[in-house]
Structure formats: C-alpha cells, structure tokens
Design a protein that fits this description.
CATH class of the largest domain: Alpha Beta
Helix content: 40-55%
CATH topology of the largest domain: D-Maltodextrin-Binding Protein, domain 2
CATH superfamily of the largest domain: Periplasmic binding protein-like II
CATH architecture of the largest domain: 3-Layer(aba) Sandwich
Strand order of the largest sheet: 2-1-3-10-4
Number of domains: 2
C-alpha cells in the first residue's frame, strides 16, 4: 500500500478519534460555579443544576451558593472559582482596582426591588435616623437601598443607617424582630412579612423606565475567557436555557424556587415568578447604559482611576449564540 493511500485512510480516522477526545474532554471538565442569591432573579443558575442543563451541554458542573455578589466577585478575583454571578456594581468596583473581570452575559438587566418599611413610616423623610437592612455592602440590595434613599433626597449612612443582615429571608426576620425599620428586597418578599404592619414605600417598578443595571451576570476573568472560550460558551448556553425554562415552565419553576428559598408562601412564589419571568432577558446581552453608570460610580470613588465600559464587558459569546440561532431554537422546543 502506498503512503498516499495510507494517508487517505488514516487522516479521516485520526480526525474521528480526535473529535471523540475533544468531546470527551468537554464532558469530563469538572467545574464549580457560584450564584449569589436564592431569590427569583437568580433562579436560572440553580435551575441549570436541577434540570441537568450543564450536562445537556457536555459539562460536569457543581453549582454553589455564595451569599452576595460582592463575595462571589472576591472569590473570582482570588482565583478560587472560574465563573460565577456578579453585578455591574461589584464588577466595576473590582475592575477599577485592577481586577481583570469581565461580564460575558447578563440574564437580567434591571433592578426589580421594593422598599418595605414599617406601616408607621408614611413619607421618605420619616426614614431619617432609622435603619434599612441589606444583604451585604456592594450587593444588589445595597445598590437598591442607596438608589431609593438618593431619590428621596436622603444621604445613605448619614441620614439612614445601612445594616448588613443577609438574604431576603433574614431581612424579613430582622424586620419582624424590629431590628430594622425597613429593607430593600425583590418583589414578592412583602408576603413573607404577613401579619406585620408594613407597606411598600417605593418600588423600582414606579420609576419612569426600568433602572438599567447589570444585575444577574455571568462573570469570569479575561484570561479564563481567552483560554477557555468553548467552556464559557457552554456555561452561557446552559444558563440561557435556564432562563428559557423559568419563562416557559411556570409551575415547576415555582417548585424549584420554593425549594431553594425554603419558602412555601404561594402569594410570594406567584409574585416572584410573574415579575421576574417578564424581566429575565431572552437574549442575555449586558446593558452598556447600566454598566456605564456603575463604571462612572466606581471611578468617582477612586480618583485617578481609568476604566471604560468595554473594559468590563465581553458579550461576544451572546452575539455568537444569537447569530447561530441557538436562542431561537431554544424557544421552539
């Protein structure tokens, strides 16, 4: 047999073997990713785990809960995890100090929050000298609380104390115990304070337009994205599929939400589902308008720093998926 004939036989065979090796390497890739909240806006992260969506795209992934997006970002910066949830605020704050972080997709680009207060507080000015509960400094609840106060003409930390309490459940408990006068929380949490004299003093839903904020963002380092782009793409595919599941499978999504929040209050689950299903983005580009606000805030807190929106956003994978028809196909299942 001539060498030419051998090559004609061996090249296709070797290509076939190589494709199997590559495919198997994806299937065997063990990763841990993190999400920062069990509230409904983050549901696609744990839905991807519950419904086997990471496996669907050839990934062996463990999804873990690390409270507060600021903590998630710190873990990514330290290199302990390669991919997790960040917000525009936490990403910009880390990047302005030199952290090479980038948002590759954002599954919700607004801040759906309410300010729940004691019923005796009828006007914003009555908040003076009182305290509001948040998850952690730098978290989305912290951003929301400060936006509300600034809109009221009040100065956070000076006119109104900002206290770190924990997740929505912990904030509800602290409110019930009288440790705080109010708290910022996603829609629906109001129902967890049933039996207490409380009211919604303000809601981002009342703003003239949705407040642009990169809220639920797939985040990684620039080097990990550059060296592991196919893996990051598969993660984005799984999380985008998680959004599709949440939007289209209401009752099962509510059951999964109840499991992770450990709340069975039907009014809470219904409200949390209905509002967030509308706000989750079908095509998860990162809002540049919202990131620009966060970048400017971060730079203002660090004189002399230089940071641009394009330094912290690379959603080219989302563009690829949209161009390939991946997202359209998901919603035709």
């Amino acid at each position: 047999m001539t060498s030419e004939k051998i090559l004609r036989i061996m090249v296709p065979f070797l290509c076939f073997v190589f494709s199997i090796v590559i495919s198997d390497s994806f299937a065997q890739e063990k990763l841990t990713v993190s999400y920062s909240s069990v509230d409904a806006p983050s549901a696609n992260w744990y839905i991807a785990q519950e419904k086997g969506l990471y496996k669907k795209y050839g990934m062996d992934v463990e999804s873990i809960f690390i409270p507060a997006s600021s903590t998630n970002v710190a873990v990514l910066v330290a290199g302990q995890l390669k991919f997790g949830n960040g917000t525009g605020g936490t990403i910009a704050s880390a990047a302005v100090s030199g952290a090479p972080l980038v948002a590759v997709a954002c599954f919700m680009n607004t801040l759906p929050y309410e300010l729940i207060v004691q019923d005796s507080i009828k006007t914003p000015q009555q908040l003076k000298g009182k305290s509001l509960g948040i998850s952690r400094i730098g978290s989305s609840s912290d951003v929301a609380a400060r936006i509300f106060l600034k809109n009221f003409g009040l100065e956070p930390d000076k006119d109104v104390a900002i206290i770190q309490v924990g997740g929505s459940g912990e904030r509800s408990a602290a409110f019930r115990a009288g440790k705080i006068s109010g708290f910022a929380a996603p829609p629906g949490v109001l129902y967890l304070t049933k039996g207490l004299a409380q009211r919604v003093l303000a809601s981002t839903a009342d703003f003239q337009k949705n407040y642009p904020f990169p809220y639920i963002c797939g985040t990684t380092t620039k080097s990990y994205l550059a060296n592991n782009r196919p893996i990051v793409k598969r993660l984005v595919m799984a999380l985008t599929d998680g959004v599709r599941f949440f939007k289209t499978q209401k009752e099962e999504s509510k059951k999964i939400l109840a499991k992770y929040t450990r709340q069975n209050n039907e009014a809470y689950l219904e409200a949390a589902y209905e509002i967030n299903a509308k706000l989750m983005d079908r095509v998860p580009y990162v809002t540049r308008e919202g990131m620009d606000i966060q970048v400017k805030d971060a730079v203002a807190r660090k004189p002399g720093a230089a940071l641009k929106v394009d330094d912290v956003i690379d959603d080219s994978i989302v563009a690829e998926l949209e161009k390939e028809g991946f997202i359209d196909k998901l919603y035709k299942q």
